[in-house]
Each structure stands twice: as structure tokens, then as C-alpha cells.
Design goal:
Elements (H helix, E strand, L loop, with lengths): L4 E9 L4 H18 L5 E6 L5 E8 L2 H18 L3 E12 L2
Antiparallel strand pairs: 1-3, 1-4, 2-3
Helix pairs in contact: 1-2
Amino acid sequence: MSALFITLTFGRIREGKRDVFEQSNATIAQLVEAEEPRVIAFHASLTEDGERFAGLQFHPDAESMAYHLQVVRDAVAASAEHWRSRSSKCSVHRTT
């Protein structure tokens, strides 16, 4: 059996970009739902003040994550201007 692949992402939203960020995130979530049947879970949330976000993904294996990156590449690139990349962190966890 393949190892479960989990990612946690945290970051800050640029001032005044909450609405645009939420719209971009909804677009990405729709892509994941429509194009990635193997994804086990894909969740994102904002803090109440709208300044920070957190994302959580569960994939059945690394190949699913690699495919995910291909599917969302353009949408993520388009939304990157709405969050502060220097403040973003991503950790990857793999079960055995």
C-alpha cells in the first residue's frame, strides 16, 4: 500500500485582498472536486479577521499530489498576488 501524503499550508492574505483570495480559493476547490477524484480531503479556511489562511490536503500517495499540482498550477499562479509568499509555509507529511 502507498503512503498517505498530507500537506499543511499556512500564510497571510494581502491587505484588502480577502474577497479576491476567497474567490480564487473557491475556484481552486472546484477544480480539485471536478478533476481530482483520488483526493481524500481538500480544505482551506481563513481566520475571522481575514488576515491568515490555512490549508489541509490528504492524498492517497505522492502521485496524487503531483497530479494535483498540475491541475491547480495556473489557478494558484493567478491567485499568488493575493497572499504574501514570504509569510507562507507548507509542510509535507508522509505515512508509511
